[in-house]
Amino acid sequence: MRARTATALALAGLAACLLAVGFSTATFTDSTQNPQTVSAVPDFVAPSAGASVIAQSTGGQVGYVATKGTYYVYANVTDSGNPASGVASVKADVSSITNKQTAVSLVAGSYTAGGVSYNYRSALLEVTSGAGSKSYTLTLADSAGNSRSQSFSVTVNAAFKGSSFGTTNVAGGAEGKAEKGDTIAFTFNNAPDPASIVSGWNGSGTKSVTVSIADNGATDGLSVSGATIGSVALEGDFASAATSFSGSTMSLSGSTVTIVLGTVSGSPKANTNNKVKSVWTPSASNYDLAGGACSTATVTGAAGKQF
């Protein structure tokens, strides 16, 4: 009886062990029962240009070039993937700027334009197009055969020169007489570099200047101190003695420099001739954003009493 009981207990223990082993085998499988494969995700994403600019070979600001000037194309290009296959080529279609240049290669390296670092740059190119806003396209390809095109823009400037000149009477003021609040507007054909007008100026806010009128009889002259903007032959009699306007404010909007006359000192005189055509002679020391020096060709204002 004891023998049978012992045998039964032994068999029950063995069954429990077998059940436990069976349960363990079903819960934790090894690699031969459920093989797993670990592999990298292939590179299926094309390279991307985080930034691209065109800049003249010398002078000027990035994003501006002069007609007949020379320039480089810059770009910052990266490739993604796990792992990335690597950038295979970067080409620029700049045919809107330089005739027939539809696939200019950019070479990897370390370059700087406008204080910013880039990792690709083209060879030196020459502007053959006319002035205006131009678009160009980068085509990027990686070693896995992925490609992408991205478009950017640049402004081509015509030769820099003065465009128009005029004065405006302050509301309620005496027509034909220079006085506080009257305005003087100098307009260029391209946006000027504000630092060439006042050293260190970025074009924001206003600058304090002094406007002077020299008494030259019937052909008084106007000049501005504290800024470089050229000179004006007023071609009329606007002062009976040397006259100045201190605390005048100068501002820049687009391609126009505007001066609002400040506190008067001297003897301004009311001009009665309503056919005066003032003549502005721009300064060759003024530059546009492409670095082009301003022509000193004179600009004649519209006929009127002025101021």
**Number of beta-strand segments:** 20
> What do the pLDDT scores average to?
89
- So how many helices? 1
Uncertain segments are: 1-33
By secondary-structure content and strand pairing, the structural class works out as mainly beta
Quaternary organization: single chain
Describe it.
This protein has one helix spanning 2-27, and strands spanning 48-56, 64-66, 70-78, 87-93, 104-105, 107-113, 116-121, 125-126, 132-142, 147-157, 162-168, 183-188, 207-214, 221-225, 231-233, 239-253, 256-260, 263-268, 279-281, 299-300. The chain has 307 residues and is mainly beta. It has two domains: 48-157, Immunoglobulins (Immunoglobulin-like, Sandwich); 162-300, no CATH class. The strands form three sheets. Strands 11, 12, 13, 14, 15, 16, 17, 18, 19 and 20 form a ten-stranded antiparallel beta sheet that branches. A hairpin with a 5-residue loop joins strand 14 (221-225) and strand 15 (231-233). The longest helix has 26 residues, at 2-27. It is elongated.
List the helices and strands and how they pair.
Layout: H1 2-27, E1 48-56, E2 64-66, E3 70-78, E4 87-93, E5 104-105, E6 107-113, E7 116-121, E8 125-126, E9 132-142, E10 147-157, E11 162-168, E12 183-188, E13 207-214, E14 221-225, E15 231-233, E16 239-253, E17 256-260, E18 263-268, E19 279-281, E20 299-300
Parallel strand pairs: 2-10
Antiparallel strand pairs: 1-3, 3-7, 3-8, 4-5, 4-9, 6-7, 9-10, 11-12, 12-17, 13-14, 13-16, 14-15, 15-19, 16-17, 16-18, 19-20
